[in-house]
Amino acid sequence: MIFFLTLWLLWYLVTTRERGIVETFSYWISSTSSDSVYKKFSRFVFTDHTHKGLVDSGMEFPEEVLAHIFSYLSVTERDSASAVCKRWSQSMSHPRVWRYTEIRCETGEQEDPALQHFSSLLPLVRHLKITVSSLSDPANRSAALSVLRLATSGPLQTLSLSCSGGVPLFYSGHDLEEGLEAALTTAPEHVGGAFLSHLDLRGVPFTLSQSLVRVLARQSPNLRSLLVNNQTLVCKVEPEAVVEVLGLCPLLNTLGLFYTSLSQKVVDELLLPQRCPLLAMELYCERFAKYIPPLEDNVWAGLKHRHPGLKVSLILDHTLPMDHFSSVLQPSVPLQHLELLTFTDLVQQTHLVTQSYSHALETIILQTTSSPELDSALRSLAAACSRLREVHCYCVVSCDVVRAFKDCCPHLWRYTLKTRKEPHPWKCTVIK
């Protein structure tokens, strides 16, 4: 996006026939390495002593162009940029600046200066990602809740909440859950959760309550995607709550759940003729999946027939006993993304994947152990799964395996296949 914006700006400058300005802007582009966009852009406009700047030439960028550039800055950088001049400060209130915004609550201050400065503009946000660093600091959690309250006072459409850093011992996340619930329920009727269409809670490290999921569905009937498969040790969202969510949100087409949240009643709700097409389903399978009856192959066949565009992502955690893998990996699952995170031998499971999902599989991630048998299974996988775009195997493999994937998978663009041990974390290879 920045590349095309740059090309457009160059064309705009060329059409003005201001040769000195074009040279100055080209100089600015050539220095796009370490500094922030704000520092480079302000240096280009105001403080470049080698070339003629925009201010001296009397030319100004349209407000829409400035707003588009400012939209790539962090909130802290936007705060700094707004202090450069009056025009930049005025451009900062353009709705395009705030449409897509990511806010990191990491300063340890309950009243962050940048957030305070822009508090009146947060209702302009339509797509918001909040990352809370260091959950042990109450100030960061409080700052996140303040952002939630302000953002949901406008017609927020997308919300993603995640946490980074360690999780305090015995922390249950009740304050963040209650804050999210309050933000969606206490806002004016015409905003709050009424416009919310995408909610992503996969990044929160605490168990989500069933009551929260129900409240979210009641307050946000226009939800199109709901992702609550956050890979915690316990799942409290029971199938009855999922049935209620599906009934309250008829437009829902993307669903992320724990495998234990599925049941025949959930499937029956998904098979109703009046439901909109289901496009994606993400399922996280952990140890408690062994206590529930698995979805049989004919059930998946029925779902695939009713929703022909459905693509499924499966994560099988190491806590799930190996003898339950085959009951989850039914042949009729329209599997697009698979992660087998066991750290044990996966030769048999790799052969199963090759036999059942060669027509649809695009991404596979394996955490397993090295062996000649695994190398053979991976070569067979490469030969059968021509649609693969990503393969990541976190154990040492032979050079023949690497060649097989590169030769047999024309759509492959990223892989982690190491022929010798390397220091962790392993970096993937991107095919240009």
UniProtKB/TrEMBL annotation:
The keyword Signal applies. PANTHER family: F-BOX INVOLVED IN POLYQ PATHOGENESIS, ISOFORM A (PTHR20933:SF4), F-BOX ONLY PROTEIN 33 (PTHR20933). This is F-box/LRR-repeat protein 8 isoform X1. Residues 55-101 form the F-box domain. The keyword Signal applies. It comes from the Eukaryota. PROSITE patterns: FBOX. Residues 1-16 form the signal peptide.
